[in-house]
Amino acid sequence: MSFQKHLLEALGPRRIIAVLGGLYVVLAVGRGFVRFTRDVPPGNILVVTLLIAFPGFGLIYGSYWLSHTDIGSKFYSDIARWCLIGFGAMAIILLLYHLQPEGGISTPATSPPILTALSTVAGFGVGIHDAQAKTRTDQLEQRNRELEETQVELEETVDELEDANERLERYREYTDHVLDAIDDIFYVLDDAGSLRRWNESLCEVTGYSEAEISSMTAVDFFDDDEHPLIAETIADGFETGSIQLEAELLTKEGEPIPYEFVASTVENPDNESVLAGIGRDITERKEWERELENRVKQQEVVAEIGQLALERDDLDEVMAEAAQQVAAALHNEYCMVLDFDSSREELQLRQGVGWDDEGTVDVSISTDETDSQAAYTLANDHPVVVENFETETRFSGSELLTSHDIRSGISTLIGTTDDPWGLIAAYDTNPQTFTEEDVTFVQSVATILADAIERNQYQNDLEQLVADLEESNERLEQFAYAASHDLQEPLRMVSSYLQLIERRYGDELDEDGEEFLEFAVDGADRMRSMIDGLLQYSRVETQGSEFEPVDLENVLDDVREDLRMKIEESDAKITAESLPRVTGDEEQLRQVFQNLLSNAIKYSGEGPPKVHISAGRNGTDWTVSVSDNGIGIDPKDQDRIFEVFEGLHAADDYTGTGIGLAVCERIIERHGGEIWVESEPGEGSTFSVTLPAVTDRFEEYAVE
């Protein structure tokens, strides 16, 4: 057995079977060839050859055929072993038979090959049968093992499923506990709006029991008017995959609670689409939003009243609007603005909202009643808040408040405790809690009213001052005009008599007399010039023309023509840059340029005068400068030269009335500009003026 085993392992079962078959085929062919050479009849050769070769071919084919059967390969060795057993058994039998005393094989070259070949094939057949039986047995055992393994696996699976079910049940219980622990409402809805699942919060919030909720739909938790919206939202949720809705949830007692609902579609274990989501109480958020809206509204009111106070001069209009806006912003029924009369020690209703018509006429509150809210507010520099007059202990309500069943209110001072103007107060017939923002809001409105009152008083005082100044200026202008006009007549008389004396008695006067007469005539002429200048100065405002576009190039040409004799006599050189068009009185501007050029020529010193006119744009104004090379002006005297009759030089040195620059200054001021000088003694002077540029609108108006 050991030899067979080693042989089988060395060569392989199928190879051994094929080798045995091949040996018999070779043996048959070789024997036939030998027999054929010995002249054995071919028929005998063929029969024997086939008897030996045919089993050999059968073994060769059988070795190939085994791989195409369902016989297990591990049983191939059993088949090969049976082939060897068949061969060995026949060989032993033949050997024993041949060794018998009476026996013996007559044809040892023929019988043994045939018999061993047939026995080997027989062994192959037995081996096939044995291998098939073992294969069936092995397959059956394999199936049994697989069934046993399957059963074990099935039992394990059953155990795992039981464990999974237990875990799932525990997880479900855990999930239920978690859902019940949250304050928000958890819900699951089907497409009909029926509740499939919910947590305890739904019962706690609504007051319904589990049994009641199980028979309700989603729309049953809302007001009848909301049912179409709720049903439409649920349908949209199944269509779009999600919902978000704010609505008031009704409790069992009918109390509305603002809630926000969100949900998304999911599939339940039955592969049905459901809406799963939560509902959150947004009462605090709604209150915060309302508070924020109130704050925004209050800020808008403060801005509107502030803007109105700036745009309107009518205090009663501003106060009436303030009372109306404050009442609306605080959601109060009443509001009033009280004017404090310190002489009568009472508060007078100036403007109010919500009061009866008869209640708003001649309504006054005496401040002697120190236990009233009005008197208490007037004595304090902070707002006074009353949430409920029935529980208020600091003071009592005035007759005006009690007659209107006022329960709550807020009041604050307009002005200061040292100089109060009055009060603003808002009231309601219901108890109310006022926030710090409400208090700040009323204070802000009171501050705006105080500023408006102060600004109105300032405006009134300013208007009165302007009126007084205008009246004073008008009287001064009338006086100056009358004085200069009335002085003309006696001055003409003095001049006439001086001329008469000169004509009649000129020959009789000595040198001193002629000098005295000359001084008198010169004084009279200077007096006339001064009166003319004063008259001209007084008429700058009253006798001026309306402003219009003025071309300064033309103005300069006219001035040059007027001063042509003086320019030629002094050999003056006047140059100018391109000059702009400005808005003003052309005649008065001509007078300004004539005075400036005339002074530049007059105060040129010893050399020929050199004058240059330039201009530069500065925003909406033009700055025009007149520069000369004259004697200059000491900085300490530069402001004084624009005053009336303030000449810096003796009359013998330079002639003039000392009023020309004063007239220039008044003309420039009438044009809304300024005039100034920059100079140093001996370095010349530069006089500059600012004049308004011509605007596009003015140009269009002028063209039309």
Automatic annotation (TrEMBL):
Reaction catalysed by this enzyme: ATP + protein L-histidine = ADP + protein N-phospho-L-histidine
Keyword entries, A-Z: Coiled coil, Kinase, Membrane, Phosphoprotein, Transferase, Transmembrane, Transmembrane helix
CDD domains in the cross-refs: HisKA, PAS
Pfam family membership, one: HATPase_c
Record-linked InterPro entries: GAF, GAF-like_dom_sf, HATPase_C_sf, HATPase_dom, His_kinase_dom, HisK_dim/P_dom, HisK_dim/P_sf, PAS
Occurrences of domain Histidine kinase (ranges): 482-695
Domain PAC span(s) in chain numbering: 243-294
Coiled-coil positions: 130-174, 455-482
Ranges for domain PAS: 171-241
TM region(s), chain numbering: 12-33, 45-67, 79-99
Enzyme class: transferase
PROSITE patterns: HIS_KIN, PAC, PAS
EC assignment: 2.7.13.3
GO molecular function: phosphorelay sensor kinase activity
Tree of life domain: Archaea
Name of protein: histidine kinase
Organism: Natronobacterium lacisalsi AJ5
Source taxonomy: Archaea, Methanobacteriati, Methanobacteriota, Stenosarchaea group, Halobacteria
